[in-house]
């Protein structure tokens, strides 16, 4: 811990959660914050006034305010690649020129959606969206959370290069009524382009006339899409300064805008923009993404927790843990700082989680009685996503709130240690009014800014992802040059499964 501010934080005594509300009767007021349709509750964490002051000092030492300003100004804050990170501009917040360009691209997307709805491309009923990483996780989350049975089109998101995934998707689609959306920033992503070629072959074999006329390209490299065979009128560009895992607000969100309707997509953007303004303008002591980052930093860098668990107590948010795995671990899973020096401690923890109440019967044993301390985050909604007996939603929320209370309180049992709960285990609760487009937009933007704030506090660049490249390069070399020079284990696996040939 080379930072004096972080060393001072580490020197502060840790409070006991069981007595924390008795010690500070105002604690609930101090450590809860409502922003729009979302209530954030950090009162069951070990955060104290003294810790908060220490982290405010750390934020100042790390130049947080200046880096936040640089993000919204469209400066090249992704220093390793010499790029800005302009996902806020897609929501109307940021550099004026970039905001204007994003609005132009959105208008182009809406015009194409209007044409599709008017059956200019035929009677479309199915959307096959092909992408990977951020080009798939974002649309999948949005459509799954907000669509339900009300989606206007049957959408399948295919990301895995395993042909089983594509085969299962197209098996339920009528090729004559299917539109293919190919999402790739560079339009060269190996897995995506292989899946796209197979989808085209499926259409050809099914007798579809002009299969390339059924393709919509979502890309920052329009020229590559044209080379591949997509007509220019069916290309929806987005800015090179929008990173993949931050791209659902751009034309990558096309299948969501089509399936849910433009009004819903616009509401999603507006909810995110409201969180942008909160993050940009709110003081540090009342800034939700920054306070959440303070909590993250405390448990990861001071306490030494290696994982962070998130449980969505709402079936509509079942894909949120998977979405956040990429956002948080691809962004902040780094070992060097912005200037290339070793990070002076742990960086991002492992993000994992699941859905309540399923997880209670699977992994909560470890959370309550295991020897690995894991900060837990609960996400829930006051309003249910169904019209069944209200007892369902009441049972869901009661279980959610009870788990947080149990983690904190624990239970002694000297007579039978196997039935004892140590307690003093932290949790955060994020409570939405409802899972609506604006609330979901605000929630996702909150996580984006929280990830950025964590990066600033650690001094790293969250906007590159070079760590994903090496394995892909080796795979490509096996395909192009054959297996050469590998260790005995890798050679044996290649020989056994591939017959020694690529």
From TrEMBL:
Active-site annotation: 330 (proton donor), 361, 472
GO molecular function: carbohydrate derivative binding; glucose-6-phosphate isomerase activity; monosaccharide binding
GO cellular component, one term: cytosol
The entry's keywords: Cytoplasm, Gluconeogenesis, Glycolysis, Isomerase
Basic and acidic residues biased stretches: 83-93
Metabolic or biological pathway, per its Swiss-Prot or TrEMBL entry: Carbohydrate degradation; glycolysis; D-glyceraldehyde 3-phosphate and glycerone phosphate from D-glucose: step 2/4; Carbohydrate biosynthesis; gluconeogenesis
Gene3D superfamilies according to UniProt: 1.10.1390.10, Glucose-6-phosphate isomerase like protein, domain 1
Biological role stated in the UniProt entry: Catalyzes the reversible isomerization of glucose-6-phosphate to fructose-6-phosphate.
Protein's UniProt name: Glucose-6-phosphate isomerase
Lineage: Bacteria, Pseudomonadati, Pseudomonadota, Alphaproteobacteria, Sphingomonadales
Gene from which this protein is expressed: pgi
